[in-house]
Amino acid sequence: MATVDSLSLFTGLGLSEHKARETLKNTALSAQLRDAAIQAQQTLGSTIDKATGTLLYGLASRLRDPRRLSFLVSYIANKKIHTESQLSAALEYVKSHPLDPIDTVDFEQECGVGITVTPEQIEEAVEVAINRHRPQLLLLVPTFLGEARAVLKWADGKMIKHEVDMQVLHLLGPKTEADLEKKPKVAKARLEEAARRTTKDVVENGEVAGQTLSLMEQLRGEALKFHKPGENYKTPGYVTTPHTMDLLKQHMEITGGQVRTRFPPEPNGILHIGHAKAINFNFGYAKANNGICFLRFDDTNPEKEEAKFFTAICDMVAWLGYTPYKVTYASDYFDQLYAWAIELIRRGQAYVCHQRGEELKGHNPPPSPWRDRPIEESLLLFEAMRKGKFSEGEATLRMKLVMEDGKMDPVAYRVKYTPHHRTGDTWCIYPTYDYTHCLCDSIEHITHSLCTKEFQARRSSYFWLCNALDVYCPVQWEYGRLNLHYAVVSKRKILQLVAAGAVRDWDDPRLFTLTALRRRGFPPEAINNFCARVGVTVAQTTMEPHLLEACVREVLNDTAPRAMAVLEPLQVTITNFPAAKSLDIQVPNFPADETKGFHEVPFGSIVFIERTDFKEEPEPGYKRLARGQPVGLRHTGYVIELQRVVKGASGRVESLEVTCRRADAGEKPKAFIHWVSQPLTCEIRLYERLFHHKNPEDPAEVPGGFLSDLNLASLQVVEAALVDCSVALAKPFDKFQFERLGYFSVDPDSHQGQLVFNRTVTLKEDPGKV
């Protein structure tokens, strides 16, 4: 059999020559398909029809347990399994029944073996579905297909599709020219707007604190295939052992079938917008399924961990509206992890190695000469590592496996003499992520270990290690990271920005760390809504910042009370002010909903307006204050009209003199402008993007490196802005809409008598930023 021409064998199954050659490049697939084809030929002869060949290829490419190949091929070759739906059911059955022997009666019942569906049954099922939905016929053809398939599970899908087409044709007649006319493409912007509006409608009906889109509605593609608790073995790629079912039974007894997730940050930096997606996903998925989520600190590298990061991470999780079921630490389990490492050595699955770190770098590091050292020798050496008899880098404990990316024998323990923030000098050896991650998940009986895509290369080691120790094995699921254009989020690069003086610290409002976004004034609800809109996909997602800002505006529009502020003041004296002293003006906190209350501001004979709201020589279309062109003052009920312009020695306009009248005593002005009277002097910080280019870390886009791409105008400080006195008692992080200017938040730099405001976002999106 070894001499069989595989290429001819595969083309004989109906594969194109190109497809056959591509298949041959996959050693595992080609071996399994060759075995399947040869076995089928023993029943069918040398000629195999294309339909059977397609099923054999589907079997070989999707079967994860080679032990079941012969069993399933016999059903295909004997035409007992002859449709795609039957094959899918068969693959699902063997995956969910990993132990021998297979109950053939139950198997055949679950896979529709022996069931024949007549054309008359198909016609009747389609007719019932169409009659049920006749009024919405044009929109629901896919529904007919689905309902007919649900009734006739084992029917041929092509036959159902043909019958639907025939019955719809009978009802509606043939397609007209209008039906066949190619529809014009909708502009991308309109599509995005429609999607935004649709998402907004959904978002407004949710219930998680701030995360208003159902978690299940966020899921896309592969993420919808999550297993049920206790059904880990149904996950593609999950490795079963003779102990798997017993371990899952014990797991279910401990958890009661509860969904358990965890958010496992390293306490060596500040969380950023990408972590917000991870927090929402882990906590949200647990909440959506009435489960629990742990906050577990992966504190296995004492060299990089600081107490301030632990505190900041806890604060950010709480700020986003989530409460962990329990806060745990990898260091909680150091004793158990050490005991398991000893057991791994005893089982011949780990060894002490003396290759240096530099020897292990690169794509093809040399194999360890110590891989086959005696078990007893490794046990003694590992104990010596534990007792501090080796210097850092002189010895490691390595596991005997090859990972997806080709990395061989990953390190499980290394020597570090840095004191640990929780265990002090108790340990001088620390476990690695590859060793710790899956075992901590096992200890906490996590059901869904949700990781970003870069950890996919560690999935095999995850399953391998749990199975090597015969402990409960959770399932690792990967999803795509969330990134933003015009941003850097890596710890190392943010530290470079701080060192270069480009930003003040981790919480500089121009960054996209969560502490920076909070300081800038982004509400946690808006961040959660943004994560909900992005959804959870397997593919990496890179979004435009203006989409996040749109979520911020939606929340602040409903929650930020209005106030008035002037950034570039121009003094205006009302020469015929109608009262001997200032008037108290009632201003609605939310003009669109006056039931939310009012605040009071003084209105006196001297007011300040924006310098840009006056022009001596206005251009055509200018509607604000000019000679012969009065304007209204918002909320006062008064209109002012220019009488005199006062200039300084340089010719610059220093003040204006105007008269006023009641707004209802004459023609309505073309515009109403904001103003302040008897105001507070405040500092206002205006922020723009930190980088000029979308991808500042991309050498092709920014050859000089991200530090060369800094926008030197990303921060403008207005030191003597004037704000109405209604904000006098504002506290850090209080938020306001300054009318006609944007949304602003009180900065923690504020102190008694000196408020500092950060502009969170402008009132409208800047078209130049899209």
Automatic annotation (TrEMBL):
Annotated family: Belongs to the class-I aminoacyl-tRNA synthetase family.
**Principal subcellular localization:** cytoplasm
Location comes to: Cytoplasm, Cytosol
InterPro entries cross-referenced by the UniProt entry: aa-tRNA-synth_I_CS, Gln-tRNA-synth, Gln-tRNA-synth_Ib_RNA-bd_2, Gln-tRNA-synth_Ib_RNA-bd_N, Gln-tRNA-synth_Ib_RNA-bd_N_1, Gln-tRNA-synth_Ib_RNA-bd_N_2, Gln/Glu-tRNA_Ligase, Glu/Gln-tRNA-synth
**Protein purpose:** Glutamine--tRNA ligase. Plays a critical role in brain development.
Q: What is its EC number?
A: 6.1.1.18
- The residues covered by the tRNA synthetases class I (E and Q) anti-codon binding domain are 672-747
Keywords of this protein's UniProt record, alphabetized?
A: Acetylation, Aminoacyl-tRNA synthetase, ATP-binding, Cytoplasm, Ligase, Nucleotide-binding, Phosphoprotein, Protein biosynthesis
Q: Which residues form the Glutamyl/glutaminyl-tRNA synthetase class Ib catalytic domain?
A: 258-557
User: The organism sits in which domain of life?
Assistant: Eukaryota
Q: Name one GO cellular component term.
A: aminoacyl-tRNA synthetase multienzyme complex
* Gene Ontology terms for molecular function: ATP binding; glutamine-tRNA ligase activity
Q: What GO biological process terms does the UniProt entry carry, in alphabetical order?
A: glutaminyl-tRNA aminoacylation
Which PROSITE patterns would you find in this protein's record? AA_TRNA_LIGASE_I
Outline the subunit composition. Monomer. Part of a multisubunit complex that groups tRNA ligases for Arg (RARS1), Asp (DARS1), Gln (QARS1), Ile (IARS1), Leu (LARS1), Lys (KARS1), Met (MARS1) the bifunctional ligase for Glu and Pro (EPRS1) and the auxiliary subunits AIMP1/p43, AIMP2/p38 and EEF1E1/p18. Interacts with RARS1. Part of a complex composed of RARS1, QARS1 and AIMP1.
EC class (word): ligase
Reactions the enzyme catalyzes: tRNA(Gln) + L-glutamine + ATP = L-glutaminyl-tRNA(Gln) + AMP + diphosphate
Instruction: Describe the location of the Glutaminyl-tRNA synthetase class Ib non-specific RNA-binding domain by residue ranges.
Output: 6-157, 160-249
Q: What is this protein called?
A: Glutamine--tRNA ligase
